[in-house]
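Chain A, query sequence.
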Amino acid sequence: MRGAQDAGPQATAAPGRRGLLRPWAVDAAALGVLWLALAAAYWPSLDSLSLTDQVDYLIECFGNDGSAWAMFSHTCSYNHTTRIEPGDTTIFRPLFYLALVLNITTFRTNLSAQQATGIVLHGLAVLCVMRLMRRFCAPPRGGGAGGRLSAGDLRLWLPPAMTAFWAASFMNILSVSYINIISYMVFVMLVASALNLLHLYTAEPPVGRTARGALVAGAWVLLAAAAMMYEVGQVIAVLVGLVLAGLEAGRRRWGRGAALLALFVLIAAGYQVVNAWDRHIHQGQFPVDSEAATMLPRAFSLDTIRNIGRAGLYTVVQPYFPSPDHLVMFTRVFINELSWEKWRWDGWTILSLVVLATWLALLLRALPRMLKRENRAAAAWWLFLMVFLLGFEAILAVGRLNVRFREEILSANSYYAYTPLLFWTLAAVRAWSLDPGPASPRRRAAWRAAWAVLLAGTLVLSGRGLWVVHGGTRDFSNFVAPLRSRLDPVAAFLRRQPNPSRVRLAFETTFRGPMPCLRGVPVTSVFFHPFEDNYSPDYVVQFEPDFVNIVAADLYRHTHPGAPAPLFPDLVKIGTKQHVYYYRGMYHGVAYGYNVMAVAPPAATLDAAYEAARRLWGSG
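Chain A, predicted structure.
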């Protein structure tokens, strides 16, 4: 079993050998540099906005007082109570939405701070991942070097290089800069931390019984939270249980293995029970997800075979091609190269292919060592990583992406790569750490040259990835600048108030313009609805072509005699494709797409206005 820790690309330096470095010091220095680079790359996203699912989510929260508890008590079951653009109604992510609620309610009047949360969480995820990478490349205990490694030992540089490659990938742009999906990064943090504990649990020599119990308990809590954060966490929990049970069975401790398996399977069972209970109590509050019913029949179609190569493998191969023409369209960063026909053959692509070929060659060379008995713990964790990776790819290939498949599906959903790209990198590092290199000097020179290409090429591609990230976040921030120019003055005004939560605003807009609308709702209402009051406002916000004017409501009424109540259209009914507003004594139905809308003729009753909007949608 010592091979799980003591085999590596190069033996640890003997005592007294010069040029020894402490791995933790190398990691600390690398983290400092990487954090600064990531902050610089993602800095433009502070002026960005999350405009897709976040808009639906915020509109769903209309009707409560906007407090953290009011938002969470509804949105922990968001997919089971949805009214706006119903989608993944089969999923249940209570902690996913808790993280979003805390971010929104903590920084409600500071949109840039909300965006900064994504950068901070990505930095923390990088810390957790690098720690796990280092554990996979840990030097042998008691090797006489005091926990130090030679500067020529490849295990010293693998963790920072591979972590940088994952962290800097342009595939992560949406995961970091769209705050409605930053919980995926929290999920990665939870899983990486749990694997850190469990890898220590299975290390040789083993830790004491009390410590082993604490490690398992800590990992169990982390994976249980991960499952409630993102449903694939329950799959990871079951796989972890199988790994631990298999390793215990190898030591002929059958009872302990069965107990560990049952303990981690309990996470998946508990998730399913809570999910089923939540669906039951919200029966009738959400439409049936028709896509889920078509997944299995489509999985065996000829089109699926074609889609597997495009939707399933792109998360493994595509991150090696960091030269996209990032294209902003509507509400997301579109990456052309994720449509396979649009690869751009230039020097960066050639370098990517060289690094990819080197990566695979070294990986294939290292894999035979997995078969050795002394490496069974390392092999078990490698198998766990690969099984999850392949399973995740299968879900992408024959699941949601397959059902929705269209030309832009990959380029608009690059965040799907955040987790599988990490697991692919971890699996490679786990295998590489067991390869000590050939014995003959000539072959060893070639082997070290290959490692030099891998490490140097990976770092160069990481730098290129950061440059692409910076360009993508800058362009997208420029795209949403007109919206931020309307929102930022309001946010700054609220922050200047002694008690912002008590301030009530009316926004001088109508459903016919001039304020941009998202999902048929003025953008000001989407982001500042908890402060909106069209009946008894403290202030009225007026939007001029070049500036925003905020005046006291009494002054506004004085200069606008006969102003109705509500002052401006008030949203009174929310629907999947149509809303109803109340204004000047009449109800106005609005049929909407994402950023387009049409207004039906006014009606005397709410139901009549809603039906008129429904007919308008059908005729359009």
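The two ends are 68 Å apart (CA to CA). Confidence is low (pLDDT under 50) at residues 1-16, 140-146.
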